[in-house]
Amino acid sequence: MSALPVFRWRLAPDGYATRRQLRALGLRPGGQGVAAELQRPRRRRGPLVAYLYRIDRAQPVRPMTPAKWAALAKANAARRICPKCRRDAGYVVPASLGMCTPCAYPEEQRAA
């Protein structure tokens, strides 16, 4: 048993929000601990748990700096480079293939 208040799914009082709900409001938890939890019962397993934070203690999301934007652009560009042929695939290389589609399925295999 925890010391946190526990609410049933969709019955949390006003003033509490999940991380995603805070983000949608342009906020972040800002170092505060979990204030409460939501529990959604399931039939054969333990309940699903969502952690709630106080909205009044939340802080605004930090703005992206030019350096962060540049790092994000560089990381996204790297995801488009095929590790086999080293070309820009024009799309994010699927992790399931590990390479671009032409490298994963060469012409001789497609014709057969």
Short description:
The chain is of the alpha+beta class. The protein contains four helices and six strands; from the N terminus they run E-E-H-E-E-E-E-H-H-H.
Structural features, described:
- 27% of the residues lie in helices and 19% in strands.
- By secondary structure, the chain is an alpha+beta fold.
- The strands form two sheets. It has a four-stranded mixed β-sheet with strand order 1-4-5-2.
- The longest helix is centred in the middle third of the chain and has 15 residues, at 66-80.
- The protein is elongated and about 60 Å long.
Can you lay out the helices and strands and say which pair or pack?
Layout: E1 6-8, E2 16-17, H1 19-24, E3 27-28, E4 36-40, E5 48-54, E6 59-60, H2 66-80, H3 101-104, H4 107-111
Parallel strand pairs: 1-4
Antiparallel strand pairs: 2-5, 3-6, 4-5
Helical content stands at 25-40%
Name the shape in a single word.
Answer: elongated
| Gap between N and C termini | 62 Å
H/I helix tally: 4
Structural class: alpha+beta
Q: What's the arrangement of strands in the largest beta sheet?
A: 1-4-5-2
Quote the average pLDDT.
Answer: 91
Quaternary state reads single chain
Secondary-structure element sequence? EEHEEEEHHH
Report the radius of gyration as a whole number of Å: 22 Å
Largest sheet: 4 strands, mixed
Strand content: 15-25%
DSSP E strands, number:
6
Poorly predicted segments: none
From the structure above, extract its key features.
single chain, 112 residues, alpha+beta, elongated
